[in-house]
Specification:
443 residues; 18 helices; Growth Hormone, Chain: A; 4 strands; globular; two-stranded antiparallel sheet; mainly alpha
Length: 443
């Protein structure tokens, strides 16, 4: 049988009024197997997403050295992180909207090119203000890889494997941090933090790869041609707004905890556990590398064993418990590495299932916009609020209590919020998911 089948056999919902829907057939094609173009698209997206995360992760390893050069307190350097994410958040919404308007591929190329240049420019930042602005701009442009790669994989993969490959795409998080740790172990310890950011230029050749080896997804082209352009108010349509608000809040709380844990962990290891730059880079890189297993396991369970929603809840709550253990219990390098790796598998690994769930519960016409607002915007706002708030708590209450409470509580709440969302069967075409959710909203 051919690797594609006619989508005319599938029902699809088309928006006629911005929120109402009618049954329609889609004359394009969807793949039945991952072989060929779908696998190629996935691998390109994975490499691009990994390098984008690597570029953004470099800052986390550089935080202690930046504090030392500019004579900043922990809360002051976290204020830079927060302001940068606020700058990035405002820009990112506009860029994500363009992903639905202009197309996936033009914005993907813009993200890769712009992020590489902006990250490299951080190496010559003359002061705190320039550093903050460059960091904010790089967050916005580099963060665009989150909704764009997610939309491409969602729209190109067979339904029965979509969740698995969306989960596998998320291993770009730990792989990016692991790669950044390797650069940090070499450049940061020998030459200081400024040369470290020149690593951002490594992503430039990917612009050519995306331009020549990816295509605009057929679903996105059809939605753009046949339906009204996406607007922000679409997320507040009666059948979408509750889902959008819940996913935004859950993602915000999760990333509050995630960003605070990851950006403050090098300082925790240095100030509390007494590790130098080489050893804390090694520990974080190795822990994230091992943590990849949690992403793969979560993606597989969410696709083959359980529903994605339930897997998110279990992984997030287990991650919250393991984070408490990490802060309070281990003191030796090997013990810290073991607990950190386990925590990464569940805490960070839950993103593998979250990403797939977020991508498939919104209509194709507004998918990039929805992933930007409910995903990327929540990420940047959580990253803006979390590290700074937790740093203030640490300065007031001490490392153990401040770190444990202001990361653990939001993380637990994020997991519990998913219990209020629909527990959808895995393996459904996105058109079928859209039909079901529309029926539930109008019932």
């Amino acid at each position: 049988m051919n690797s594609v089948s006619v989508l005319a056999t599938l029902p699809r919902l088309t928006d006629t009024n911005g929120c109402g829907s009618v049954s329609e057939t889609l004359p394009e094609t969807v793949p039945e197997t991952v072989r060929g173009y779908p696998l190629r698209a996935f691998l390109i997206c994975l490499v691009a997403y990994t390098t984008a995360q690597m570029d953004l992760a470099l800052f986390g390893y550089a935080v202690p050295a930046i504090r030392a050069e500019f004579d900043l307190t922990l809360s002051e350097v976290m204020a830079i992180v927060s302001i940068a994410f606020l700058i990035g958040g405002g820009l990112l919404v506009a860029l994500g909207w363009l992903g639905d308007r202009i197309g996936r591929l033009p914005m993907f190329q813009f993200s890769l090119l712009g992020s590489s240049i902006l990250v490299a420019l951080i190496s010559v930042a003359p002061g705190v203000m320039a550093l903050t602005v460059l960091r904010g701009a790089s967050i916005a442009v580099g963060g665009l890889s989150y909704p764009i790669t997610g939309a491409i994989v969602t729209e190109e993969m067979p339904a029965r494997l979509r969740g698995l490959f969306m989960g596998l795409l998320q291993i770009g998080y730990p792989l990016g941090w692991a790669l950044a740790s390797l650069w940090s172990m070499w450049l940061l310890t020998r030459y200081g933090w400024r040369p470290l950011f020149l690593v951002g230029l490594i992503s430039l050749p990917l612009v050519w790869v995306v331009r020549h080896y990816l295509r605009e997804p057929a679903r996105a082209q059809a939605a753009k041609a046949e339906q009204a352009p996406a607007v922000l108010s679409d997320l507040w349509a009666p059948d979408i707004r509750e889902r959008a608000a819940t996913l935004f809040l859950a993602q915000f709380l999760f990333v509050w905890a995630y960003a605070a844990s990851i950006f403050l962990f090098p300082s925790f290891l240095r100030d509390v556990r007494g590790l130098d730059a080489f050893n804390f880079s090694l520990l974080i890189g190795a822990g994230n590398g091992i943590g990849v297993l949690g992403y793969v396991l979560a993606a597989w369970i969410g696709e083959r064993v359980w529903t994605r929603r339930n897997t998110v809840v279990l992984w997030t709550l287990l991650g919250s418990i393991l984070f408490q253990v990490l802060v309070w219990v281990p003191e030796r390098f090997g013990h810290i590495l073991l607990v950190y790796a386990l925590m990464s598998m569940f805490f960070y690994g839950s993103a593998a299932v979250k990403f797939a769930y977020l991508a498939e519960v919104f209509p194709t016409r507004i998918r990039a916009l929805a992933m930007t607002c409910c995903g990327s915007l929540a990420v940047v706002l959580g990253s803006a609020a979390g590290p700074y708030s937790v740093s203030l708590a640490i300065e007031a209450w001490g490392w153990h209590l401040g770190y444990a409470v202001l990361v653990g509580v939001p993380l637990t709440l994020a997991g519990l919020l998913y219990l209020t969302l629909d527990s959808l069967p895995s393996g459904l075409e996105v058109e079928e998911i859209e039909r079901r959710m529309s029926q539930e909203a109008t019932a």
